[in-house]
Amino acid sequence: MTDDSSARSGKLPDEVKVIFTPSGRQGKVPAGTTVLQAARNLGVDIDSVCGGRALCGRCQITVGSGEFAKHGITSGNDSLGKVTAVETRYADKKGLGDGRRLSCQSLLCGDVVIDVPPESQVHNQLVRKAADDRQIEMDPIVRLCLVEVREPDMHEPSGDFRRLVEAVETQWPDRVTGSISCDLNILQSLQPVLRAGKWQVTVALRDGHHIVGIWPGLKDRIAGVAIDVGSTTMSVHLCDMVTGEVLASTGAMNPQIRFGEDLMSRVSYGIMNPGGDREMTAAVIDGLQSLISVAAEQAGLTPEDVLEIVLVGNPVMHHLLLGIDPVELGGAPFALAVDTAVEIRASELGLGIHPGARVYVLPCIAGHVGADAAGVVLAEAPQKHDEYTLVVDVGTNAEIVVGNSQRMLAASSPTGPAFEGAQISSGQRAAPGAIERIRIDRNTLEPRFRVIGVDQWSDEAGFDEAVKATGITGICGSGIIEVLGEMYLAGIISMDGVVDGQKADQSARIEADGRTFCYRISENVTVTQNDVRAIQLAKAALYAGFRLLMDKMQIKAIDRVVLAGAFGTHIDPKYAMVLGMIPDCQLGNVRAAGNSAGAGARMALLNRGARREIEAVVRDIEKIETAIEPSFQDHFVKAMAIPHKSDPYARLAAEVELPERILTAEDAPAIEGGRRRGGRRRA
Amino acid sequence: MTDDSSARSGKLPDEVKVIFTPSGRQGKVPAGTTVLQAARNLGVDIDSVCGGRALCGRCQITVGSGEFAKHGITSGNDSLGKVTAVETRYADKKGLGDGRRLSCQSLLCGDVVIDVPPESQVHNQLVRKAADDRQIEMDPIVRLCLVEVREPDMHEPSGDFRRLVEAVETQWPDRVTGSISCDLNILQSLQPVLRAGKWQVTVALRDGHHIVGIWPGLKDRIAGVAIDVGSTTMSVHLCDMVTGEVLASTGAMNPQIRFGEDLMSRVSYGIMNPGGDREMTAAVIDGLQSLISVAAEQAGLTPEDVLEIVLVGNPVMHHLLLGIDPVELGGAPFALAVDTAVEIRASELGLGIHPGARVYVLPCIAGHVGADAAGVVLAEAPQKHDEYTLVVDVGTNAEIVVGNSQRMLAASSPTGPAFEGAQISSGQRAAPGAIERIRIDRNTLEPRFRVIGVDQWSDEAGFDEAVKATGITGICGSGIIEVLGEMYLAGIISMDGVVDGQKADQSARIEADGRTFCYRISENVTVTQNDVRAIQLAKAALYAGFRLLMDKMQIKAIDRVVLAGAFGTHIDPKYAMVLGMIPDCQLGNVRAAGNSAGAGARMALLNRGARREIEAVVRDIEKIETAIEPSFQDHFVKAMAIPHKSDPYARLAAEVELPERILTAEDAPAIEGGRRRGGRRRA
């Protein structure tokens, strides 16, 4: 390329100086060298799919400005030579931004500063989402490479595949890491594709040595999909595997719901119905296939454009996805079939996407701490901080990781379904009509609340009109935390969780309910004594899990708390602290992380190093089995109570009458009646 | 093992001397060591599947006799201690030959010579077949290993697969060559199999690092299948992958016959009928599936016991087997899709055998020299000799390899179907009723012959009665060589292949046939002038191929000729020499090798080193394309004639009036009329 190009240029200096930003790399190259070649010589990161043939447009750059004097460079816009006919053709066909040049066509004719925009960098730092400062460095395991293949020749009768390999090795030496092999379907389509492309084809090179896809001519877009399969919902993010951009996101209920609402009822279904596990596997795979098709269509692609999938899920989902009967996860010793990462072909799972597509499943941490937790760890990276982080994903089981750069521990705590609104008299899914926010007047005990689907609070104008569509139907899982926190702060429930019947004199909202009392929020929504007990049990189990790991870690406090998952996203951390759900910590260091498991899946999709990283981290995590730790029971019993509202009330007082430093459950008197489990609930 | 065992023994010397035969390895080991352990310490080859648990019986040995004094060893039968209860149990259950001991149970109590019988050696030298002195060293790519796996434990919640890997690594360190992985189906069946086997399972370890099969308890027999897929017939040999023994052999017509008798008509079928290539692929795979099932049943096994398959076939068969449209092989430049060895899962081909079974396909050499020729090279090993060998497999194309340890050349020659009986007026398949042997009286020109299915020659008593069942129906492909050879030796045809009409005066068997003459063998079988021409053309093409490679090799003579394949097996090499089909060579050095391609497949099945060997050899073979070599035409024209019957007649004269040193076609005058092809016949 360099030789051809220099022929085109006029009188040139022997050598030119070039500085690339933002990398700052600089050096001298022979005049007439293309910018792309110079970048490669100097180790500057500029992407290309077509390998310098002015087809893909991935290698765009601009001439830098303003910094010339500083670098002692005086020449300016002429230093790249004139815009070439090839670039004009490209611009006419696909468009080229103002001042943009194709680095594969631009010749270095004078000293120059070259700006490499982020989208032209291979290792582009992607901001994960708008509200999030974490970045994913692009280093996808599958890369597109355009190659020109030698035609067959009777004088040297080598197979087409041999010449394809030779082309990849010589035209993309930086990308090849080993002896190149391919799938059978590549051999089957190779000859027609080579001829259709007139010996110019794009291959998808996986992990530097395995060809998984081939297309005639230039193919500059393939997709990858990051999938989080939860017990209740499945979410799918379809990403451009060249740029890293999220092209489409979608989600759906897990179709296994029909076999049982929670995990253990699905495990039971498999035990009770021969072949039931295969039925559930087929259901979830079908569901994923639909989601992938929908996402591909949204992105203007087809499922055949999907070359890579990363999956996370809890252990039962993990096993069912892989066609492994989860029966062993239903009872002690809760043995996983496999706890290492799994890499297989998508076709082995029955997914109808590109025939060469692979599926990577993150490792499971333990029998109750799944690949979803591994995804959370990858996204939240407690192992990269010296401070102690507590990461928790609350579901029917809370998956808990505590640790720092020195040591990591993991456990699961059997919180049961109360946090999801089950076992609560007015509990319901987070759907229109559900109460999600509440404030209770400390004197009158009157509530004001918001329901999902209505903008106004219940005491604001227009609420009554707006709520007519759905009515006020119940309390969602995260709402119940806020209700109980407010009830406690208003003195309706005591530290030991008793609804105070004496308050009935003060407000008609306290009603007798058999031998106990309940609090009425609306005509058909009440909070009963049993509801309070159910949440106390759940939060005690959660807190006991935290304490167990902190004891094992020999620490008394946590620096940072990350609440992952849907529940963690929707609860107000302040009320979680009021109820003593999470340990003593600066409130500002408690963060709702959203779908961290899915974010981790996306990191593993777009960066192959992230896979090796999480495999190593998971291998080193110490797994603690709460069911066999006697101290778990002690912590559980102690954690039934709600903590003291001690001084100083400080910063948070104005808002929720909450002390900045929350006292922990240990500060409260133990409640003996809280003990309710001999062993593991779900065993 | 050693520690347990020594506890059982009484008063012992500190060390004992042990000599193993036939290896001759010897050394001193602590008394009380098991024979198996001692063998391993001393690098002696004793097999085991169960790893020393007295289950598989692979490790049987006997105490040597007769040689004690020579080795300075005086103690005898007591030196292995008493037969243990475990051995007695094994003998009761599975039988143990006289004097046989299980080396995993026998303790070395005194100096001793141990005989390791061939069947107990891992690297057992298998004699390939009774009539054959070549041997295959057993080193199968798949090995069975019995392991005991740690049970899961809540204190250390590792996945079952991790503990399986640990068991294989610690219990079979000699067999593990890398980080152990497995197929998805292993993960899917792992948990029930481990529990069914009470944590004792047998795994099939492939290539030292990949688990492809798992069974509860001891599994001591798995099979491999070597398959040669010819255009006309397919043959299958099912082998015990532990002992190497051929358990069953079977064969059938290639079901693709219905798409076209010869290769090129099948290629055309694919071109003319969209999807026709997939139809042909399905047909051959179905056919193989049936053969494998039949062979497995003959061996008392099921198709699920088959863990490994090796395939050979000509390039068109190779492509169709792999689901590759062979259209490119139908025209210049005859490009193969792939010329390297291919390894895939059997399930990818749609073969219903063990789900973890792999298929290894030998490399193709060139567009007309296939994986079957690679099999022939592997079996005949010209690369291992300093003498020059010519190996030829005659079919519609003759696949030719010429070379020695220094250099190897390969080409194909378009012989056409005449050698297979096509294009011959009375030609037919080798089936009952076909003339396969003939002698013609030099004076009377009367023939005597044999037909397939009848024991007597035609002039012997009982022939007329015996032949009634079928009649005399035609001449088979190999028979025509003998007929023409005899006709020439009897003077019925001249050196330039003309049927001599003047002989009609001498015998009524010479008949006018239009403007030419023919020779009548029986009432309905004649040899016409056109028949002679067809064979002349075929043998000229064959011979021209040989000469071309000899020219390239710059040699004038061949030391050894190997005739591979069915045609090579059935023709009498003497007549091939009479007609000038094969180059000048000592007749004793011309050998019919039978199904060498299939033998090569079996070598690759039972010895993984053979795969690396043939891959390297094929890579280095120089491929010559006869179609673009001008000298091929020259040789072809010259080779139309039949060589002189020069002196000395010597050794062979008595039998067929043939000189020991056959003059080559070059000695004969060129026949200009023989030129008939501008390019490649089948292009």
List the helices and strands and how they pair.
The structure is a homodimer of 683-residue chains.
Chain A lengths: L1 H7 L6 E7 L4 E5 L4 H7 L18 E4 L21 H10 L6 E2 L9 E4 L9 E3 L7 E3 L4 E7 L11 H12 L9 E2 L1 H13 L3 E7 L3 E7 L6 E7 L3 E8 L5 E8 L9 H10 L3 H23 L7 E8 L1 H7 L20 E4 L12 E4 L9 H10 L8 E5 L4 E6 L4 E6 L13 E2 L5 E7 L6 E5 L11 H4 L7 E3 H13 L20 E4 L2 E7 L2 E3 L1 H25 L6 E5 H6 L2 H6 L11 E5 L1 H11 L1 H13 L1 E2 L6 H9 L11 H7 L27
Parallel strand pairs in A: 1-5, 9-11, 12-15, 15-17, 18-28, 20-30, 21-24, 22-24, 28-29
Antiparallel strand pairs in A: 1-2, 3-4, 3-5, 6-7, 8-10, 10-11, 12-13, 13-14, 16-17, 18-19, 19-20, 22-23, 25-26, 26-27
Helix pairs in contact in A: 6-7, 9-15, 9-16, 12-17, 15-16
Descriptive report:
The structure is a homodimer of 683-residue chains. In chain A, helix 12 crosses helix 17. Chain A folds into 5 domains: 119 residues, Beta-grasp domain (Ubiquitin-like (UB roll), Roll), CATH 3.10.20.30; 80 residues, Roll (Ubiquitin-like (UB roll)); 136 residues, 2-Layer Sandwich (Nucleotidyltransferase, domain 5), CATH 3.30.420; 184 residues, no CATH class; 95 residues, no CATH class. With 683 residues, the first copy, chain A, is α/β, with parallel strands linked by helices. Chain A starts with a helix and ends in a 27-residue tail after the last helix. Chain A is elongated. In chain A, strand 25 and strand 26 form a beta hairpin. Chains A and B meet through helix 4 and helix 5 of A and helix 4 and helix 5 of B.
